[in-house]
Amino acid sequence: MENITALGGDVYEIDTRMAGFSGITAGYLILSDRPCLVETGTSTSAPVVRDALHHLGVGPDDLATVVVTHIHLDHAGGVGDIARYFPSADIVVHEKGARHLADPSRLMASARMVWGDRLDTLFGELSPTEASRIRALGDTGAVDLGNGRTLASHYSPGHAKHHVGLIDSSTGDLYVGDAAGVYLPQTGDLRPVTPPPDFDLDTALNSIALFQALAPERLLFSHYGPVQEVEDILERSAEELKIWVDLTRQAKSEGMDLDHAVAMVRDRTRGRYTALQADDETAEQFELLSGAPSNVAGILHWLDRVAP
């Protein structure tokens, strides 16, 4: 199947084809003794992911675990559907996100407020998962991949208060979710993801420092794909956060409303990203994943809390 890429170490990247796009959201299958899916993608992606797992020999009762880095709909929107397709799998999530997988009503209502009618085409509807199948992680935890291999969980809020990073004891792969930003392999661009209401700069920088301390062999981005230049990318991730915060703080100090702040930050950062000088489709893809309005709104929300 053309949406499956073998990454070595029994790890397979699955393009979950969010909203029909390629190269936007990745799920990862660890085909160990106890097969584990990291990230489900959206609800509308669930059949794509199911078919990829079946193609890789993982039948309905073979999947042991589904782990999500956090409960945003581009990462976990398909959890309820995947749980139904693979009835033997445990569903693993940080304890701050667990109740929203069991009862997604509040999460879906707030997503509807943000996205409006676009919600249905971009994400679909997160279906509930039986509470008995959900395993909640604390600040650290581990998923048994079989044969002595584990996927260790490390609490990494900043992007979202229910976010974890996951490191594979066998490969040294670190699944970074959104805590290190969005990486675009076509152009090598990296941009932060700082949506409201949870973004907090110090917490986000501490999460990146934690990732550096874990000394991973490789970073696996949910958006998008594997990156070998671990130290360089994590340093860039911290630098990008500081630049966006500094510019947004300047806009706020000049009394700009959200629209003017977004326009200013977008204009001042445009030259940093090759994708925005590329073809329209690549630029649209980048903006969908790390939209300036959402990023600036999240930073302003944080600034209002820490420096009203």
TrEMBL record:
This is Glyoxylase, beta-lactamase superfamily II. CDD domains: ST1585-like_MBL-fold. It holds the Pfam family Lactamase_B. PANTHER family: METALLO BETA-LACTAMASE SUPERFAMILY LIPOPROTEIN, METALLO-BETA-LACTAMASE DOMAIN-CONTAINING. SMART domains: Lactamase_B. It comes from the Bacteria. Residues 24-223 form the Metallo-beta-lactamase domain.
